[in-house]
Write a structure and sequence with these properties.
By secondary structure, this protein is of the alpha/beta class. The chain has a single domain, classed as Peroxisomal Thiolase, Chain A, domain 1. It is 32% helix and 19% strand. Strands 1, 2, 5, 6, 7, 9, 10, 11, 12, 15 and 16 form an eleven-stranded mixed beta sheet that branches. The protein has a three-stranded mixed beta sheet with strand order 3-4-8, with no helix packed on it. Helix 10 links the parallel strand 11 and strand 12. Helix 3 runs parallel beside helix 5 and helix 9 crosses helix 10. The longest helix is centred in the N-terminal third of the chain and has 17 residues. The chain is globular and about 60 Å long.
Length: 419
């Protein structure tokens, strides 16, 4: 079977734009979540977020891209720029026909569409809207396809191109699809990852209705507390992670630096409930076992688990049970942590951001901590790396995602062979 390795990483996340600031943020044990500044959130139950301090022009975008593209597309282009430079493809992919794009997003151009609707409807006053008040390419805010289109154009990729939208597992599933395309020979290089910029009034209204986000507005940095007895929901976030995923022999021949091999991926749907999770974690466990079979990985091989770790009681119990089910007694020996405690939950893009965290953990031999974990829940009895990062060799890492609608996904990264 053809193998795939990550040879370039670009991250746009709360706490800093770029892979190095991101890594410094999530290994610091400090949270980057804060009170919402993007809009007036005073009427909402939850008023906190992991916001990205992002200037599209400073990030290298053209003025027309800064004015005419949704924020999530801008994130992806900035991440692409860094990933291509990191991989040695700064001028674009070398063989366009053998390069593709697979990108994830849960909510697409929600922020831009909401802004444009406010313009054409006089802030919701007019039922019959005036399209002449909108941006010149209003349709680009209506559909998620500009994400794949703009990235493909910027990278010069003329192979397969797709946007994957499976809720909060989109960032894992898009990378899994890219892996499949490399394995089956459809591409040698895939630009993959995910981007979401959901921080808008309609998003906060949706999650307030679900009561899934934390109401601890008095302590934004401490609000997201995965696996903690006092947890009460997550903080919304935004951001992107873009990768150059390359066929192993293709990367080896050109002497590319390999962060990690993407060794296994699987996804399942529980066909059970829109937001509910069975406490036994069976569906996530099945996804983990299927990914392990692809990677030929045994339970005792794992050195790190990047948990979905949203900070809700339902999720924490569900995935704790899933790890025990899939790994058996070995689950008690593996460090587990949630970086959402520091950057918030960026919906569809967070799965890719967490893949970046795993690749960097393999690269640097450091496991990021779970911030804000001061009072461990006795029902969650694994090693959740509280508060402080841990230096340890990471040769094999597991990352998982859980999404509304019943989506459960798992990916396995391992140290790449270099000879």
């Amino acid at each position: 079977m053809r193998k795939a390795v990550i040879t370039g990483i670009g991250v746009i996340a709360p706490g800093g734009v770029g892979t190095k600031p991101f890594w410094e943020q999530i290994t610091s044990g400090r949270s980057a979540t804060r009170a919402v500044t993007h809009f007036d959130a005073s009427r909402y139950r939850s008023r906190i977020a992991g916001e990205v301090d992002f200037d599209p022009l400073a990030a290298g975008l053209r003025p027309d891209q800064a004015d005419g593209l949704d924020r999530m597309v801008q994130f992806a282009l900035a991440g692409l720029r860094e990933a291509l430079e990191d991989s040695g493809f700064a001028g674009g992919v070398p063989v366009p026909e053998r390069a593709g794009v697979s990108l994830g997003s849960a909510v697409g151009c929600t922020t831009g569409l909401e802004t444009q609707y406010a313009k054409v409807s006089s802030h919701g006053r007019d039922w019959l809207v005036d399209h002449t008040l909108a941006a010149g390419h209003l349709f680009d805010f209506f559909v998620p396809t500009p994400l794949a289109r703009e990235v493909a154009w910027a990278a010069g990729a003329e192979g397969p191109a797709a946007v994957v939208s499976t809720g909060c597992t989109s960032g894992l599933d898009a990378v899994g699809y890219a892996l499949d395309l490399i394995r089956d020979g459809s591409a040698d290089v895939m630009i993959t990852g995910a981007s979401d910029a959901p921080l808008s009034p309609i998003t906060y209204a949706c999650f307030d209705a679900l009561r899934a986000t934390s109401p601890d507005n008095h302590d934004p940095a401490g609000a997201c507390r995965p696996f903690d007895r006092t947890r009460n929901g997550f903080a919304l976030g935004e951001g992107a992670a873009i990768f150059v995923l390359e066929e192993y022999e293709h990367a080896r021949r050109r002497g590319a630096h390999m962060y990690a091999e993407l060794a296994g991926f699987a996804t399942r749907c529980n066909a059970y409930h829109m937001t509910g999770l069975r406490p036994d974690g069976r569906e996530m466990a099945e996804a983990i076992r299927a990914a392990m079979a692809q990677a030929c990985a045994a339970p005792e091989d794992f050195d790190y688990i990047n948990a979905h770790g949203s900070g809700t009681r339902q999720n924490d119990l569900h995935e704790t049970a899933a790890f025990k089910d899939a790994l058996g007694p070995a689950a008690y020996d593996v460090p587990v942590s949630s970086i959402k405690s520091m950057i918030g939950h960026a919906l569809g893009s967070v799965g890719s951001i967490e893949i970046a965290a795993c690749a960097l953990a393999v690269e640097h031999g450091v496991v990021p901590p779970t911030a804000n974990l001061h009072e461990p829940d006795p029902e969650c009895d694994l090693d959740y790396v509280p508060l402080v990062a841990r230096e340890t060799a990471v040769d094999v890492a597991l990352t998982v995602g859980s999404g509304f609608g019943g989506f459960q996904s798992a990916a396995i990264l391992r140290r790449a062979e270099t000879s």
